[in-house]
Amino acid sequence: MGLSMTRAVALFFCTFLIATSAHAAQCGGDFQTFLSAMGREATAAGVSRNVIDQAFAGVTVDPAVLTFDRRQRGTFRKSFEEYAATRVITVRIKRARGLMQKHAQLLSRIERQFGVPQTLLMAIWTLESDNGTGAMGKLPVVRTIATLAHDCRRTELFQNELISALKIVQRGDLPLRDLVGAYAGEIGQTQFLPSSYIKYGVDYDGNGHVDLRHSVPDVLASTANLLKTNGWRAGAPYGEGTENFQVMREWNRSEVYRKTMVLFSERLRE
To answer: For a designed S-S bond to 265, which of 39, 109, 119, 186 qualifies (C-beta 3.0 to 4.6 A apart)?
Structure first.
């Protein structure tokens, strides 16, 4: 998926992740004052002072992130047919089938455990990052999300995401230098926001860390876990109009995108 469309997908995804707890940091105003308040919130959430100080050192507002955020409205104006024609293409299908063979044992194990069809997991993995070979974003996640949290449009959402990003470092899942992502702070091969990383991430390779940038087992199991946790029914259909198609809203609210996921999965089954 192209970089701009990937980010747009994540912004649809953002809308259902609004934090349930209100944070005290005041949006707008002096940025460093805002960061200081966020540091206090992070400390109260269990993040160490050392992690906070390292993460916030030298951080400034990123104007490019705000510019990108403001032009994301109405991205899914294409019809399903128009959108799918540029996404469900032969080269992607061929690569995904090859990876299904390469990871056959892993995918079977995940499908048995979480109930999510391996063809759908492959569709998501391919559409989000071309199976880890495409653009996953190169922006420092802390700076990106701090910028969006300081902006008052969705401050509560992104304050929660900022603390979640710090928790990823606190847990030792990713070092700060590797905490890079896209224009809304999405991380890894299936583009998880930090709060989803914390909530749904699975250490499936058993190395003690949830690594959604480099570990294929972690990436695929965590993606399946997100769907299962939100009500996925194993063995049930997932085309348009089904309960599982509704569960897929927790991945992406765009009906066009979800229909494209289903089509890609169907092509892999052919």
So the answer is: 119
How many alpha carbons fall within 13 Å on the CB side of residue 230?
Answer: 22
Contact 200, 222 (CB under 8 A): yes
* First-to-final CA distance of the chain: 22
Please tell me the pTM assigned to this model.
0.89
3-state secondary structure of 13: helix
pLDDT in tens, 30-57: 999 999 999 999 999 999 999 999 999 9
Q: Which amino acid is at 264?
A: F
Kindly report the length of the chain: 270
Whether 55 and 173 have beta carbons less than 8 Å apart is answered as no
Alpha-carbon distance 267 to 91, whole Å? 12
Q: Residue 104 is encoded by which pair of tokens? A: 């056959």
- DSSP class of residue 140 equals E
Distance CA 128, CA 181 (A): 13
Coil, strand or helix at 222? helix
pLDDT tens-digit readout, 53-71:
999 999 999 999 999 988 8
Of 116, 83, 99, the C-alpha closest to 1 is 83
Q: Is 68 left (phi over 0), alpha (psi -120 to 50) or beta?
A: alpha
Q: Report the candidate in 248, 240, 254, 247 with the shortest Cα–Cα distance to residue 74.
A: 254
